[in-house]
Automatic annotation (TrEMBL):
Pfam families listed in its UniProt record: HTH_3
Organism: Pseudorhodobacter turbinis
PROSITE patterns per the UniProt record, alphabetical: HTH_CROC1
CDD domains: HTH_XRE
Protein known as: Helix-turn-helix transcriptional regulator
Signal peptide bounds: none
Length: 100
């Protein structure tokens, strides 16, 4: 599995989530309550130990009163394309592509 949680784009996205939570003056526990998840889930996201998918990104944005596209733009702006393509090449080495 590709290690996208270590990319510059993901790190910037996580920092934007943390900054958004701080701007609202809420705790990880408060955010977890808004999301309907455990505080540990929020802690793992904020520490970069857990990936988030697109649907979770939308939920996080709404819980933080942010626009999902704003968060996506932060990740895109900070993403290093070589990191992105490197993640795909690593996964390609682990599996045979049926398109080949």
């Amino acid at each position: 599995m590709a290690n996208t949680i270590r990319t510059s784009g993901f790190k910037a996205l996580v920092q934007a989530l943390v900054d958004g939570r701080h701007a609202l003056g809420i705790t990880q526990r408060d955010l977890a309550a808004r999301l309907g998840c455990l505080p540990a889930t929020v802690a793992n996201i904020e520490s970069g130990q857990r990936r988030i998918d697109v649907i979770e990104l939308i939920a996080l944005a709404r819980a933080l009163n942010m626009a999902p596209d704003e968060l996506f733009q932060i990740a895109m702006r900070e993403a290093d394309e070589s990191e992105l393509f490197n993640n795909f090449s690593r996964s390609r080495h682990k599996a045979t592509d049926p398109a080949d």
